[in-house]
């Protein structure tokens, strides 16, 4: 029987919902209810376990070290087999986001850059000054792209930053930095952060990890941050505001200028999360697309995150966190002087880090250059616009807001369940992102979708998926019931339990 653990709840201010969640937590403790729920979970987990371990039948499972080391070529052969089984879907453009470039020439170039530096560790900057050079230049090039020269003069406008392992780490670092800054500079010991509810889950995570109260404000009807609502949510203990450029769910840029003005007036931090758009929006603007101000050119923006491992086309495992001043960045650094292991200092959460990934990131930026990013963005946004127009033309669907290349769409027809459309697309090999509040689906267009015929295939498949769903309502399997369940308040605790069990399953052999 699967056991249910009650997890300490995050300090979340989210009107009207916490009472029902609490009741659910209590209900789980009543033996009869608990047993019924556990039995249901067990059934669901059986299905999930099969999906997590598709190779279990055909390949050996290692729960112990092999007695003798295996032949290296045999190991590589096994890995190539897995790669072969997994690569087609993203290579052929069936996946939203995930692999942003993926051309063989580019990836093998990144692999070579990694291989040259695979033994390096930026923790030892004395041993590998090459990697320190790469990281400093990654930060400088990213800052330059994101308005550093327009930030103003003086040490308070000297944009700087650090390389992290990904968007989530960049965001966690920025939020920890604000927490420590607010404590040191303002004496705030019960901090809160005010975010639009569409800000990435990494902000929710930061709040939980760093004990910052999360005040999430539901976005307006246009799916963008509600500035007035966020203003109302602030108080003396607010340490920062957050806006996205664009936000993951609907691909829309929040009103950063207004948020930054508010933050500046109230003397709090303002983080623009450009993990998704940092390497697209500057070039889209240059191409003449309407891109609202979002970077350090906006007074009041005090930090940003931009992911090199997405549209920077680096290998997975790097991102950049930027600050308007070195004084602010100081609150990110970690130093310890009384550890028996010696004097120790590190810029991010990790200690040792993979210098090879920074090398590959630097190599990607060098190989792309301004022209390369401009050209890639042109292809991506043109494809995004084609897809957006195509979706708008499909009866029963509607595009949310005015997106450039991350296009989200919802059902515009009574009785048409968008999650069943998502499932129908899954049966046609597509791997799209299911979203909720409101129920919708998105496609983040990458260079994979700019290949000939991919956008057309997507639209044809989507049209068929909608027609199929309309003709066979209620047929949805897969994610449809999970999203349906998550949308009903009492079931949210159950979905959370299921997700934790899924994480267990990932490591269960
Ligand atoms: C807007 C935004 N912020 C943050 C992240 C988190 O990035 P990562 O998955 O690299 O941690 C994402 C990921 O898609 C994102 O879209």
UniProtKB/TrEMBL annotation:
Q: For this UniProt entry, what is the primary localization, expressed as one broad class?
A: endoplasmic reticulum
Task: Name the InterPro entries on file.
Answer: GrpII_AminoAcid_Decarb (IPR050477), PyrdxlP-dep_de-COase (IPR002129), PyrdxlP-dep_Trfase (IPR015424), PyrdxlP-dep_Trfase_major (IPR015421), PyrdxlP-dep_Trfase_small (IPR015422)
Topology term for the membrane: Single-pass membrane protein
**Which GO-annotated molecular functions does the record name?**
pyridoxal phosphate binding; sphinganine-1-phosphate aldolase activity
Its Gene Ontology cellular component terms are: membrane
* Residues with PTM N6-(pyridoxal phosphate)lysine: 310
Q: What is this protein called?
A: Putative sphingosine-1-phosphate lyase
Give the organism, scientific name: Plesiocystis pacifica SIR-1
